[in-house]
Structure formats: structure tokens, C-alpha cells
Amino acid sequence: MVGERLILLGVWLIALSTVLLALFVGWQTRGRAAPVEATPEPTHTPLPLPTQTVSPAQVELPDFSVNVETLSLAPRISLHTIIPTRPRQVAISYTVGTGDSIFAISKKFNITPETLWWANEDGLANPDAIAPGLVLRIPPGDGVYYRWKKGDTLPGVAARYKVTVDDIIGFLGNQLDLIDPQVKTGQWLMLPNAKGEFKQWVVPTIPRGKAGVTKSSLGPGACEGGYDGANGTGAFIWPAGSHIVSGNDYWSGHLGIDIGLSFGDAIVASDSGVVVFAGWSYGGYGYMVMLDHGNGYQTLYAHLDSVGVGCGQSVGQGQYLGGGGSSGNSTGPHLHFEVRLNSGWVSPWYVLPAP
Fold first, then answer.
1. Quick one: fold of 215-351?
2. Which phi and psi (to 5°) does residue 271 adopt?
3. N or C: the chain end with fewer CB closer than 10 Å?
4. Distance CA 134, CA 320 (A)
């Protein structure tokens, strides 16, 4: 019995081994590609390909060009240094030349006529009182160029000219210590954007009635008044053949326009009226004529080279008054022309026809 059991066990082990071996062999061969059969050689002989010799000159290649601007990605280099324009911080001197005027000089230095006038009040009685050779102070900007007086204080000067102490100290050209600003008597300071006291010298309006003026105050050309004569039309014409402003235009310190002309050019009445001033005038106007038009208007003609009318004379519109010139304080031949209404001033541009 034992022997039979051993024999069956051996058979079972052999069978199990056979099964395991078969499974192993199948697992090893799973997924492998089947062998590829070789392609049989062709049974015909292929024809030879045609051959051709091509020279380099016969080969056409596409154009090749380079856009330098496209390839140049680096920034362009400038060999010139650009220095920014900086505002001037100090005053400079300017010598008046022939043909100059307060208006033209201020425009040249980009400041207002008032600024230029305030900086030179000590030597410039009125805007028409300039002459060639006069040296003017040119402030660095608009405002008041002020000379420090004994007893002045920063708060007092600032209050007088309606600016702040910081405005004065902060202006670099004044070179003041920010912590302990000290100003010496006689020192010039720029008060930026300040407004000075308005002053000007003008010939008073002289009506045709008894004016009560004296020659000693206005000049030998002053007329005593008490006249009667022609009245104006209310419509004005240009008093000279030229219609070009050559010097001062109309502004608060110059209550007329300066009309360019040549020596001896005819000066005519802008409207009909009566002569109330004819001759030399004090204050820089030189030879001058003033007309009263009997309707509230007066006109004034200054810096003449000669006067061709007299006190109390009636003149018509366009009538000759004298020759153009540069008498008095003048830098060149021109006519200073004023229009007044009821003792006030009117810009000539409001009444003259378009040039």
C-alpha cells in the first residue's frame, strides 16, 4: 500500500512539473512579433537613371538681402551732449541801443515791461525816458528786483510786495541761508512774482477850456487854454503813413503806441480839433502836439522833429501837425501816439482802423 502511494505521488509531481514548464514557456513567448519573411529579389533588372551635368552658372538661387535697420537692435549712440536750458538766476546788465524800447527789451528777455521798469526806477522816470547808452538791470524773471534798505526785514518786505518769506529765501539767485538768512543793506534781492508800486510820468490832459497849467511844469509848449474851434467826428485815422508799431506797444506803463517812421515823415491830426499843446515838453516827450476834440477825446503826438501848428489853432482831420523825429528821450525816430477819453486813457487799437 505504501509503495503504491509513493508511485502515485511521483506521477502527480511529474505531471505538475510538466504543466508548470508549459506555462513558463508560454509566458516567455507572449507579445513577441512573428518573424518577417524576407522580400524576394526582383526578377527584372532596373533601368539606369539619366545623368546630367549642371554648371554653377545655371543654378538659380533666391535673392538674399539683409535689412540693416531690422537687424540693428542696439540703440543709436549720440556723440553730442544735450544740456537742458536752465532759467537764469541772477540779474544782468543791458546797454540800450538805437531803436530800443522798454517793450522790445522786455520781450527780448522774456519778462514783462513792468518788471523791467520796476528794476530801473532809480534811473528811469518813465518808460519813454530811455536813450542809447543807458544801462538797465535785467532781472532773472518776473517780479520785483529789490535793493535792500536799512531797517528792512524779510517779513516786512514780503508783506509790502505781497509775497512770502519762503518765496524770497527759496529763490536760488538770492543765495540766502535757509536756516539763518541775513541780508545786507544795499544787497539786491529778487522777489519772484511780486508787484511793484505803479508809477509813471504823463503829460496831464489839457482841455480847450482854461486849463490852469503853467509852462514851468509841462514845458514851453504848454497852452494856457480858453480856446474854441473845431470839434472831432469821433472816427479816427492813423496819424502817420506807417501803421507799424516799432517800439513800445500799449501797456499799463506806456499809455500809447510807438509808430515807426523816418525823420521828417508827415504827422497828421487823427481827428479834427483844437491845439492845446504845441512845442517842447518836459518829461522825455520832446516836441509834442496835443489836440482837444471837443467831444471828450484828446490825442497826443510826441517825439516830433518839428511842430507846424500853434496854440488855439483849429485843425481838420488829416491836417499836417509836424514832422516825425526822435526828440526827447528816444532811441530812434518814431511817433508816440496817445488817445484819451474824459481824462482817462484808451488803447489806440480800439479807435484806429485796422492797419
1. Glucose Permease (Domain IIA) (2.70.70)
2. -155, 165
3. N
4. 33
Q: What is the DSSP letter of 44?
A: S
CA 47 to chain centre: 91
Classify residue 222 by its DSSP letter.
B
Q: What is 92-192's CATH number, 3.90.190.20, 3.40.50.1010, 3.10.350.10, 2.60.300.12? A: 3.10.350.10
- The SS3 call for residue 280 is strand
Separation CA 323–CA 91 (nearest Å): 39
Can you count the helices (H) and strands (E) in the chain? 8, 13
In a 13 Å sphere around the CA of 179, the CA atoms on its Cβ side amount to 0
Q: Which three cell numbers stand for residue 271?
A: 481827428
- pLDDT (tens, 9 = 90+) of the chain, 355 residues, equals 555 665 666 656 676 666 566 665 555 555 454 444 444 454 444 444 444 454 544 545 555 454 544 444 444 544 554 544 567 888 999 999 887 878 788 889 999 888 998 899 877 766 666 778 889 999 999 999 999 999 999 999 999 999 999 999 999 999 999 899 999 999 999 999 998 876 666 778 888 876 556 676 788 998 887 889 999 999 999 999 999 988 788 887 788 999 999 999 999 999 999 999 999 988 788 999 999 999 999 999 999 999 999 999 999 999 999 999 989 877 789 999 999 999 889 999 999 998 8
Rounded to 5°, angle at Cα 58 from 52 and 59: 95
How many Cα atoms occupy the beta-carbon half-sphere of 36 within 13 Å?
Answer: 3
Domain locations along the chain: 92-192, 215-351
HSE-CB for 37 with a 13 A CA cutoff: 3
- 294's torsion region: left (phi>0), alpha (psi -120 to 50) or beta? left
- Model-level pTM? 0.57
Q: Indicate the SS3 state at residue 276.
A: strand
